[in-house]
Amino acid sequence: MRHHKSTRTLGRTKRQRVALLRDLARSLVLEEGITTTIAKAKELRPFVERLVTASKANTLQSKRFVTMKLGNRKDAARKLHETLAPRYISRAGGYTRIVRLGRVGKRVGEAARIEFVK
Predict the structure, then answer these.
(1) CA distances from 101 to 13, 33, 38, 44 (A)
(2) With the CA atoms of 72, 68, 98 and 111 taken in that order, what torsion angle do they form, in degrees rounded to the nearest 10?
């Protein structure tokens, strides 16, 4: 039973889950909006918001932390520090929004769009 389990496993092992979140976060940062499932979007949101909060500090430590969390992809980390973090410097949190898309394909209510708030 899953009583008091806080994270979704998404049908994957831990290593696969971490790799999935890194790839989704990298795509979200580079494209500023992606379409995925609701469960993946809900797991991705706190992961990305921690990265944005860390990148607002704009220190060497925060740059290394963000780069490590994004799987050593310097292009995504650079965009996060140079473009996205200054946009949210006066915002205390809530950098992303999840929009449910309803029916996409044959599955009803599975799709969601996660994007950065303007």
Answers:
(1) 27, 13, 9, 17
(2) 50
pTM of the model: 0.91
pLDDT at 2: 87
Give the helix ranges, DSSP H, for 33-112: 38-55, 60-69, 74-79, 85-87
Structural domain boundaries enclosing 89:
33-116
**Does residue 1 belong to any structural domain of this protein?**
no
- CATH number, position 55: 3.90.1030.10
What is the tally of structural domains in the chain?
A: 1
Question: b/e for 47-62, b at 16 or more Cβ within 10 A?
Answer: bbeebbbbbbeeeeeb
Q: Looking at the domain assignment, is residue 2 inside a domain?
A: no
Give the residue ranges of the chain where pLDDT is below 50. Answer: none
Structure-token pair, residue 34? 């992606």
Q: Name residue 26's amino acid.
A: R
